[in-house]
Recover the amino acids of this structure.
């Protein structure tokens, strides 16, 4: 099947009413659970899994995938309006989206997030269709040393965002890396910093960490804050739509973010997280007025949102062409196929082309549905800010507790939210960036296992980081990034002396 | 204006966490070699780096002044207590009971006076959570308090 | 996340109306039955539990709610079953790890297999296959052992973590074959597969269902299987037992069992055991299990008790060797 035949076939497949219905159900449910703090795509897909026994595997996959990318749209809403990110990607969106909402530009922030998500998805789809085979080869070409080097580059590039003093940023990333060590060590089986708690054997629950650091800390800080009580007064209907200046500012970050996301998304693991952080730090680096970032810059929402959505699409490349899931959600989607007796693997594409093309076409139609559905909803979402905070915050607390509980069904995780919330409140008072802590926490275990694995496989030879071309490239880029400020300072001094 | 206490205390706290983690890991976990790094290698290295970064944050701050931050211990205690109460009452009081109690505790620090709105809010949110999570999302939580 | 089968519930309710008189003297079950699974929804142990409980619910005339409590290699699921026990309607399905090796691998599991858990029945077993890249020179067990034995740790193999079934099976194999291999732990078979295809590591002991698609695509090769008899999902793979100088009784299988908390009525255990044995005798159920990589293997509660004791001893000896290395 050629690309065009495939696409035509896929569109024909998805526009069958019964398939379209499941696609629609998936994206609507995805948006809804994405808005609920803590209930992410993972929990929603687990909930829906039994229902998929009764429908065809193609429809099941299309619906569950719809939940997955639909939840990204919904997640942006909770992050921008309430500072309740359920994932590290959405944590990046809070950096500028939340200040925008607080200054009365919630409608513009939501529009930016949705338009960027749509553009990111569309570019992701194009890349997936044109380069699926190439992306999958890239995924297997990356070895342990390459991953370790890539993630270290990501950490170094991102660790100065969201904070005025670099040392505080690095300290938060390091604290996150250290928290990531909690739990069972993959390489040795040792139980680190678990203090006899079985609930800690798989580490701190990521959703509990995000909800505590952002949601709970924000609630405590605002209960008696008169500014927060009067956000409603700053919202005018005329501010719902972006100005021409906003539009002009958001387009280039969208394209750059989509490019980053499309590439990193295909790499198993953290493509989505890494690309949204990288996109944010890139936008801030190339901005004319980097000081606007963190106070409500449109670019700070547009870049990361398009990055994480295009990454969500290209993540399907290794999943569909090789049958190798890059993250737990992809593994769950493949699990849904297994229930139907379909063995995911490299032969699936040949054996069931309708699956691939149907899914790809459903991405396009699903994202279009999401845009059509969500743009008119912006007004309703923004109206949520009109609810007095007195009434809103108890609801936030109950909902976020239930969201955390939905992940593993453990009381321990809700209690952990309280402890993490206290830490988050103190960090917020001292102006430490919780987003960087989250980044370190997510990347830490991956860096550690890949680094240790690289040394294990190379039998202890550090040259592996220079002999493998991919790893060497990332190492050189990291060194360049670290030397850049030094070089800039030297050039400025040189220019000064010539004058 | 006063000394930059948030950075001083925050930096020192991070340095203490780093030193503590590094020492604990060095005592209890194997460091290993470069070829076969043990479970202690990363925590010790990260703890040491955090210790240094904590000092880098704290020491320069000694010479700085900053606005005093506003801290609200009472609000923090009420909100955190509400979460803990929710955690432990969920299985005994059911979703409805736990939500009602949690909302009542959480609204304690709210600036608006009176108790009628608190009770109305608790009732409304109880209905909402039961509808969303039990009826809508079909989480199999007990809804009502366990009588036995 | 807890999941409820509503349509099944309606069906089960209908069955209950007709089933109650037949079991009139037998009060149990008087309400919904809960089954704890220590793995997330959609995972292989979860799907297995759903296939069995689906039929079980109809036979018992009561709905069955699957409670997924993933974590710590299945240990959290067993713990949560014990925490919720006491009503006579709480059970669990678990893989072998929490009942056999977890006590050795973890500081504390919080339960004692002998006193806290009553075996109901073994449900199914799954062997592992020794897989290598199709590009490698090794095309049978002899050449693999020759390549591995030529130099200490010449062969690097991937597992799904220190102390995992894949790791312990590989070490058991290494001891029996007299070779020494470099162990590289990963977190999932997907990662192991990527690393084998990328040429980073040489081999892996993998679940047959994880390796088969790549064998069919011609990118991987299976050199041997750890079961005592040919496995339905991969009947052509030679047994490791009795091959290339390995002992005839070589056997390393993962298994999945139905368990009850201590204090459960003996009659209840008996009833569950018979019902599950009947369910597993159904060829349609057996076929469903094979597609997800499991072979039905019902038995008595005492069979399961003996299997737990045997495997605890066998893997304990392997762990002793790994720890002294």
């Amino acid at each position: 099947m050629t690309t065009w035949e495939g696409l035509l076939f896929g569109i024909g497949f998805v526009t069958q009413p019964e398939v379209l219905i499941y696609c629609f159900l998936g994206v609507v449910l995805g948006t809804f659970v994405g808005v609920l703090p803590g209930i992410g795509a993972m929990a929603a897909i687990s909930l829906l899994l039994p229902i998929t026994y009764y429908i065809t595997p193609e429809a099941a996959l299309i619906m569950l995938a719809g939940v997955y990318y639909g939840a990204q749209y919904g997640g942006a809403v909770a992050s921008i309006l309430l500072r309740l990110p359920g994932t590290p990607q959405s944590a990046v969106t809070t950096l500028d989206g939340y200040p925008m909402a607080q200054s009365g530009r919630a409608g513009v922030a939501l529009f930016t997030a949705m338009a960027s998500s749509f553009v990111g998805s569309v570019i992701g789809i194009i890349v997936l269709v044109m380069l699926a085979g190439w992306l999958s080869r890239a995924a297997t070409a990356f070895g342990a040393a390459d991953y370790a080097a890539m993630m270290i580059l990501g950490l170094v590039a991102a660790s100065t965002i969201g904070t005025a003093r670099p040392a505080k940023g690095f300290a938060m990333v390091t604290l996150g890396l250290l928290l990531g060590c909690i739990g069972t060590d993959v390489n040795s089986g040792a139980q680190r910093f678990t203090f006899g708690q079985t609930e800690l054997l798989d580490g701190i629950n990521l959703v509990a960490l995000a909800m505590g650091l952002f949601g709970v800390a924000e609630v405590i800080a605002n209960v008696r804050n008169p500014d927060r009580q009067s956000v409603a007064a700053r919202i005018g209907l005329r501010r719902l739509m972006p100005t021409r200046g906003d539009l002009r500012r958001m387009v280039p970050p969208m394209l750059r973010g989509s490019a980053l996301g499309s590439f990193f998304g295909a790499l198993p693991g953290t493509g989505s997280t890494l690309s949204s952080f990288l996109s944010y730090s890139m936008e801030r680096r190339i901005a004319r007025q980097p000081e606007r970032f963190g106070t409500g810059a449109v670019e700070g929402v547009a870049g990361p949102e398009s990055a994480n959505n295009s990454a969500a699409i290209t993540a399907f490349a290794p999943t569909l062409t090789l049958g190798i899931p890059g993250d737990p959600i992809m593994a769950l989607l493949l699990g849904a196929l297994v229930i139907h007796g379909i063995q995911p693997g490299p032969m699936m594409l040949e054996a069931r082309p309708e699956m691939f093309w149907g899914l790809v076409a459903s991405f396009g139609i699903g994202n279009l549905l999401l845009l059509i559905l969500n743009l008119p909803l912006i007004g309703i979402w923004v109206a949520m800010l009109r609810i007095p905070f007195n009434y809103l915050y108890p609801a936030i607390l109950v909902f976020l507790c239930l969201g955390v509980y939905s992940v593993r069904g453990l009381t321990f995780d809700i209690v952990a939210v309280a402890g993490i919330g206290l830490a988050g409140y103190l960090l917020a008072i001292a102006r430490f960036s919780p987003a960087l802590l989250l980044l370190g926490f997510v990347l830490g275990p991956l860096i550690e296992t890949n680094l240790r694995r690289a040394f294990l496989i190379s039998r202890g030879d550090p040259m592996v980081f220079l002999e493998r071309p991919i790893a060497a490239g990332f190492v050189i880029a990291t060194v360049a990034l670290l030397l850049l400020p030094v070089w800039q300072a030297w050039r400025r001094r040189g220019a000064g002396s010539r004058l | 204006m006063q000394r930059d206490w948030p950075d001083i205390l925050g930096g020192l706290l991070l340095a203490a966490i780093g030193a503590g983690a590094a020492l604990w890991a060095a005592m209890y976990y194997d460091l290993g070699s470069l070829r076969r790094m043990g479970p202690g290698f990363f925590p010790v290295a990260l703890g040491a780096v955090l210790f240094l970064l904590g000092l880098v944050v704290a020491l320069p701050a000694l010479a700085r002044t900053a606005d005093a931050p506003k801290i609200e211990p009472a609000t923090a205690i009420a909100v955190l207590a509400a979460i803990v109460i929710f955690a432990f009452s969920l299985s005994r009081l059911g979703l409805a009971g736990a939500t009602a109690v949690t909302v009542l505790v959480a609204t304690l620090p709210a600036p608006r006076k009176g108790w009628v709105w608190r009770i109305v809010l608790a009732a409304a949110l109880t209905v909402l959570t039961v509808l969303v999570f039990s009826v809508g999302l079909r989480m199999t939580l007990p809804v009502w308090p366990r009588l036995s | 996340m807890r999941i409820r089968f509503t349509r099944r519930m309606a069906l089960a309710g209908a069955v209950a109306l007709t089933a109650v008189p037949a079991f009139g003297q037998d009060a149990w079950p008087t309400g919904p039955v809960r089954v704890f699974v220590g793995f997330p929804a959609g995972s292989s142990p979860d799907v297995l539990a759903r296939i069995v409980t689906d039929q079980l619910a109809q036979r018992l005339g009561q709905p069955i709610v699957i409670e997924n409590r993933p974590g710590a290699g299945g240990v959290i699921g067993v713990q949560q079953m014990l925490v919720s026990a006491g009503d006579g309607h709480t059970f669990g399905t678990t893989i072998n790890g929490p009942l056999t090796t977890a006590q050795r691998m973890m500081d504390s599991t919080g339960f004692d297999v002998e006193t806290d858990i009553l075996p109901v029945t073994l449900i199914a077993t799954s062997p592992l296959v020794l897989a290598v890249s199709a590009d490698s020179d090794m095309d049978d067990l002899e050449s693999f052992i020759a390549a591995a034995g030529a130099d200490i740790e010449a062969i690097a193999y991937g597992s799904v973590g220190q102390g995992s079934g894949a790791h312990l099976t590989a070490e058991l194999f290494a001891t029996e074959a007299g070779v020494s291999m470099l162990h590289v732990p990963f977190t999932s078979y997907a990662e192991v597969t990527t690393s084998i295809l990328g040429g980073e590591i040489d081999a892996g002991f993998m679940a047959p269902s994880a390796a088969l698609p790549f064998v069919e695509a011609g990118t991987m090769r299976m050199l041997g299987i750890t079961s005592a008899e040919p496995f339905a999902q991969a009947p052509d793979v030679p047994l490791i037992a009795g091959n290339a100088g390995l002992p005839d009784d070589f056997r390393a299988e993962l298994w999945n069992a139905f368990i009850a908390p201590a204090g459960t009525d003996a009659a209840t255990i008996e009833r569950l055991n018979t019902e599950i044995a009947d369910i597993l005798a159904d060829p349609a159920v057996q076929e469903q299990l094979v597609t997800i990589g499991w072979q039905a293997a019902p038995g008595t509660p005492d069979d399961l008790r003996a299997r737990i004791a045997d495997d605890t001893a066998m893997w304990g000896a392997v762990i002793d060797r790994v720890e002294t290395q």
Summary: The mean pLDDT of chain B is 89. Chain B has two domains: 2-66, 73-136. DSSP finds four helices and two strands in chain B. Chain B touches chain A through 67 residues (CB under 8 Å).
